[in-house]
Amino acid sequence: MSILTIRNCLDPILRQKCGPIENIDGNLVALSQDMIETMFDAPGAGLAANQVGIAQRIIVVDLGIGTDKINPVAIVNPEIAAFEEEMTGEEGCLSIPDLFAEVKRAKRVELKGYDLDGNAVRYEAEDHLARAFQHELDHLNGILFWDKLGKIKRDLLKRKFKKKLKEKSP
Ligand SMILES: [Zn+2]
Fold first, then answer.
1. Which of 74, 77, 113, 126 could form a disulfide with 32 if both were Cys (CB 3.0 to 4.6 A apart)?
2. Per-residue buried b or exposed e for 134-145, using 16+ beta carbons within 10 Å of the residue's own CB
3. Residues catalogued as catalytic
């Protein structure tokens, strides 16, 4: 396993709609293991393939998010089948490091997809996990969390991000 480089929000692949996965093979299994290692190393609770430069529909999420358990899974071709109620909560993104904002999301979702053996899987999630599912699904569709904010808040975050980037580069 290896730790992959996480692309930041300026990389065009973060704006790309990722393509469906036709074949689950050894490469995909290896990718998902690397993604899980990369997610925990960051540290984060979810990661979409385009964040590590692969424009394909696979995400990894720690199902234990918000609890003291760790339970990472990879989900292939995920889709949100149902959204219920709304909640607002703090959200961040590994591609927009160190910046957070209050984002409105569905409180409960039903997510469907496939595991790495090609079996259909279905998860009912609420609160933190529901937020993580929606956030990672958005990535696969080229959407970033700040797209959910008003223009003024979004522009403020973008300026902060660019300032941090400048500070980091020599
Ligand atoms: Zn993200």
1. 74
2. bbbbbbbebbbb
3. 136
